[in-house]
Amino acid sequence: MTTLFIKNMVCNRCIMVVQNELAKFSLDLKGIRLGEVILDEEPTVDDKTKLEKALIALGFELIDDKKSRVIEQIKNIIIDLVHHHNNDAKANLSDVLSSQLHHDYNYLSNLFSEVEGTTIEKYFIAQKIEKVKELLVYDELSLSEIAFRLNYSSVAYLSNQFKKVTGLTPSYFKQIREDKRKPLDKV
């Protein structure tokens, strides 16, 4: 068995697209998840080159070097935690990353900052703010419910962080999003 690491896989739709692309190459797929594809055997150099070109056309990229793989794994864990598990884990992010990647958090943090030019914490906050935006647009939860779901200590803390990142308050963001929407009878 061999594992291919793929950059920019961030959602279930990405998994489906990559899976469909792999099927075109008749590669024996054993498993797939965000950022990783497990194949029964190593693809030929020709198949790998063709697959890489096809993936690039779809916005993905095969990752060969170890540092890039670790960075992509960090991103995928954070994305999965925030967007797919409603940030259920009450555990500290550093503990989650260290235990899942089997590396000291200081190593992961330094590597991420060196390669990405930002900290793991800032990336995590950016993902949480994107989730807040999504939940505000859906208009199904109150701000206090969103704060609770994403493990913010208070609505005030969420609002301050949201404004710091976006320049807007959550209520103003929601208002300008609603102003752009037309009622169904006006479409």
Automatic annotation (TrEMBL):
Is-annotated flag, keyword Coiled coil?
Answer: no
What molecular function terms (GO) are annotated for this protein? DNA-binding transcription factor activity; sequence-specific DNA binding
Q: Which SMART domains does the UniProt record give?
A: HTH_ARAC
HTH araC/xylS-type domain span: 76-176
What are the record keywords, sorted?
DNA-binding, Transcription, Transcription regulation
Top-level taxon in the UniProt lineage: Bacteria
For this protein, the record's SUPFAM superfamilies field holds: Homeodomain-like (SSF46689)
Q: What protein is this chain from?
A: AraC-like DNA-binding protein
